[in-house]
Amino acid sequence: MLGVDEQEFPADRPLGELGIDSLTAAQLSVEVEERTGATIPLERFLGEETLQDLARELAAAAAAGAEATA
Description:
Strand content: under 5%
Number of helices: 2
Shape: globular
Structural class: mainly alpha
């Protein structure tokens, strides 16, 4: 979506610095929800959070969901 090779994507840089516009943020929000079931407001893709931050949060939410169903 961003035209960046995933191996070169700077996971430790704020997403807002990567040139993500509001349309791309909306597309990313929908894509994450479709793939994971987690809802991430599009504003978070435009701010200071990094891909690492969002990935940690998704992993924690998935682990909490797994514990709740066990």
